[in-house]
Amino acid sequence: MTGFLEFVPGTSMLHRMNPAAKLGCALLVSIACFCTSNLVLLLAILALDFALAASCSLTRQALGLARAVTVFSAVLAIIALLTTPTGAVIASLPWGYIGTGSLTAAVLVIVRLVACAVPLFLVMYVTQLVDIANSLVKILHVPYKYAFTLISAVHFIPVFLNDMSGIMEAQTARGVEFDGGLARKVRLMIPLCVPLLVSSVRKTNSAAIAAEIRGFHLRTRTSGFKDYPFHTADVAALAACVALLALAIGSNFVG
Fold it and tell me: Rounded to the nearest 5°, which phi and psi values hold at 99?
């Protein structure tokens, strides 16, 4: 075989890369985001993320993810803002003050989380989970049961979200109103975790039985029929990501 995915007009380089190389690059970029406190470098990584998303025609999806991560990280940013008294004083607090460094720390939290989330999202979006699992088994010799556990965890996330949405719609039809403040929504959603847990256990048990029937315990590294060879572009991408990680670590010692 010449490769696991032949060139198709209109597909990006990310589509054609080796699945293990894509996952490795995404992990290296994510680690680099947590290894630096240089805001300029983090913004550069974020710009690179969106440029890569644009090359895959996934700009809208990446922006949606960025908005969701920004909302999620807002709480962490507020904590950093209130607990990092550095820089020129902007406002005094009973336990310290908010300074220019506090604002920088809050922005760093948001930019760092968005910059590390987008590459992982792109890899999962443009690569089939089966290819990721098989490449980990064939190339990195990861035991198949661990690779299967990884892709199953990712696969069940949207399934559980759909189940929760269905449970909430059923409760809404029974007169439960989920409108209101955050505290009210949390109080109403906590009891819904019980039927979601029951549904999750049933689905997991059914998936385990189906896997055993299909001979899951007989699966080995040589069971897959696809090959996942490394090409020059894969090696170059990994080298670039390693260099980015080294730059991120080195940026902490500059100045």
Answer: -120, -175
